[in-house]
From TrEMBL:
The keyword Transferase applies. Belongs to the adenylate cyclase family. DacA/CdaA subfamily. This is Diadenylate cyclase. NCBIfam families: diadenylate cyclase CdaA (TIGR00159). Its EC number is 2.7.7.85. Probably a homodimer. The lineage of its organism: Bacteria, Pseudomonadati, Bacteroidota, Bacteroidia, Bacteroidales.
């Protein structure tokens, strides 16, 4: 029997790239939420199912696996409902629209963004020097109205002194999170969902866990100032960026604003 090559068309290449992209996004979501072991177990089960049903063609065992797969789809939806919601959120974000607007508006948006970012950066630097704990959540595409309602509504312009006063150690709002939305301080003293990721370093406290939790459930960016060390960190897309300098903090906030 002569050996023949299978010619890949452009459609086949696009198909492979799309599947690889979906697997990569799923892997990142599972890794950030601490469910990577469950995800790996599902992949192993799928491989065994394909081998039993398609390669070895075991009818009885294959039919049992088929029934488990049909029921397992519903179980996966229930088990990973937060991860699925986050994945659909990332697909439906307005990044492409914002990129198009930046193309037409150009530098004006960037300058305006810096006016809103610098008070936050300077406030974080001052609180870092005084080892004043702080947790600031920057809303992006996903609305944080439910989170804001857990605290006190402020609805004030972004101001360095106001931020520092809210997180002052004797302030009644210093323990909660501040929500910044639509270039305004929307609320303070808010309660965030706490991440239960077992891979979080032990030296990181409740503020860091809360910041990671909100970054896993939404597309928000959370800034943390440690009360113990004064270090400035960011939780974004389910990952930590620890011990940031002033330049790194400004760069990350600017990039998030431009997206």
């Amino acid at each position: 029997m002569p050996f023949s090559f299978t010619i890949l068309t452009i459609k086949d290449v696009i198909d492979i790239l799309l599947v690889a992209f979906l697997l990569y996004k799923t892997y990142k979501l599972m890794k950030s939420s601490g469910s990577i072991n469950v995800f790996t177990g599902i992949l192993v089960f799928i491989v065994i199912w394909v081998i039993v049903s398609q390669v070895l063609q075991m009818r009885l065992l294959g039919s049992i696996f088929d029934k488990l797969v049909s029921v397992g789809v519903i179980a996966i939806i229930v088990l990973f409902q937060d991860e699925i919601r986050h994945f659909l959120l990332s697909l439906g974000s307005r990044h492409s629209t914002n990129s198009l607007l930046r193309f037409f508006k150009g530098k004006q948006k960037s300058d305006r963004g810096k006016e809103d970012i610098m008070p936050i950066v300077m406030a974080c630097l001052n609180m870092s020097k005084g080892k004043v704990g702080a947790l600031i959540v920057m809303e992006r595409d996903f609305p944080l109205d439910d989170i804001a309602r857990t605290g006190d509504i402020i609805d004030a312009s972004i101001n360095q002194r106001l931020i520092e006063n809210i997180f002052f150690k004797n302030s009644p709002l210093h323990d909660g999170a501040m929500i910044i939305s639509h270039k305004r301080i929307e609320a303070a003293g808010c309660i965030l969902p706490v991440s239960h990721n077992l891979n979080i370093p032990k030296e990181l406290g409740l503020r860091h866990r809360a910041a990671l939790g909100i970054s896993q459930e939404t597309d928000a960016m959370a800034i943390i100032v440690s009360e113990e060390t004064g270090g400035i960190s960011i939780a974004y897309q389910g990952e930590f960026h620890l011990r940031l300098s002033a330049e790194e903090l400004e760069r990350m906030l600017t990039e998030a604003t431009m997206q």
